[in-house]
Write a structure and sequence with these properties.
Blueprint lengths: L2 E6 L6 H13 L2 E7 L10 H12 L5 E6 L3 H8 L3 E6 L2 H17 L4 E6 L9 H9 L13 H10 L1
Parallel strand pairs: 1-2, 1-4, 2-3, 4-5
This protein binds adenosine-5'-diphosphate.
Length: 160
Amino acid sequence: MRIAVYPGSFDPITNGHEDIIKRSANVFDKVIVAVLINPDKKGLFQIDERVELIRRVTAPYKNVSVESFSGLLINFMQSRDAKVIIKGLRAVSDFEYEFKMALMNNKLDSTIETLFMMTNAQYSYLSSSSVKQVAIFGGCIKGLVPDLIINDVINKIRGK
Ligand code: ADP
């Protein structure tokens, strides 16, 4: 069984993320969306909330599951018997950082491959932080995040 892990912060999940998840789910037997617990970075949503939002959005994809993890991604991969890390690439600016990470992960475990998936051109400008900025200033986030979570994002920002 080919298991892939798609790691990230997903604070919150965007349409760009959902597109990568959908396409990966067509390629692999199983895709685990892995929400990174980073104690140094306080996000908008708590980790459990992010997991819940992604579960809601990915409910139609039967071979997709969602978990959180802390520590080294490689250790999480090993514990799930997963051999492929999925990364999305938006622009050249993503490349340098991802290139370093992929090489480091390969050094830690050479049986694990990182696969890069090109962004859908439609979402190449989209990131969780740009969504938050737009929402904070009252802009419309329809088309940027899945319809199912628009109200969650707006309410969360209002409540802050
Ligand atoms: P961000 O906060 O920048 O959206 P994440 O850490 O949540 O970043 O992203 C997780 C993964 O999804 C990364 O591999 C990132 O490159 C990828 N990704 C994020 N947004 C997009 C997008 N619009 N298109 C393709 N890949 C994306």
